[in-house]
Amino acid sequence: QVQVVESGGGLVQPGGSLSLSCAVSGSRYGIQAMGWYRQAPGKQRELVAKTTSGGVTNYANSVEGRATISRDNAENTVTLQMTSLKPEDTAVYYCNAESRDWRGRGVEYWGQGTQVTVSS
């Protein structure tokens, strides 16, 4: 049973910073990529940042220069650090992990989500 456990989030003032962490356990076939997505009220879930096991990273344009994603491959943990937060960063943030099943098919695992609210 794969578990995805997130921590961090909460209320942050505009211009502030935050750190979100995620740990994935129970995968028998490795984790190919890990990332963070977010969903604001009334909007679709969108990619914030993602990193592969090989260290390739990509960021949403909206957070480029303000976000840093880092990963510990040995521990299957991923951390998202964001600075200069804006009210439009308010959303539920979800950790995502990409793996494979016993047939080699791609599967995704999601955390339960953590609320980030940017407000004064």
Summarize model confidence as the mean pLDDT: 96
Span between N and C termini? 40 Å
> Spans of 5+ residues with little confidence (pLDDT < 50)?
none
Tally of DSSP helical segments: 0
Extended strand count:
11
> Which term fits the overall shape?
elongated
Give the DSSP E fraction (strand runs of 2 or more residues). Answer: over 45%
Helix content: under 10%
Order of helices and strands: EEEEEEEEEEE
Task: Give a short account of the largest sheet.
Answer: 7 strands, mixed
- Give me the secondary-structure category: mainly beta
Radius of gyration: 14 Å
Describe the protein's topology.
Blueprint: E1 3-8, E2 10-12, E3 18-25, E4 31-39, E5 46-52, E6 57-59, E7 67-72, E8 77-82, E9 91-100, E10 106-110, E11 114-118
Q: What does the model show?
A:
The structure is a single chain. The protein has 120 residues and is an all-beta fold. 0% of the residues lie in helices and 57% in strands. The protein contains no helices and eleven strands. It has strands spanning 3-8, 10-12, 18-25, 31-39, 46-52, 57-59, 67-72, 77-82, 91-100, 106-110, 114-118. Strands 2, 4, 5, 6, 9, 10 and 11 form a seven-stranded mixed sheet that branches. The protein is elongated. The mean pLDDT is 96.
Keywords:
seven-stranded mixed beta sheet, four-stranded antiparallel beta sheet, 120 residues, single chain, mainly beta, 57% strand
Quick overview:
The protein is mainly beta and 120 residues long.
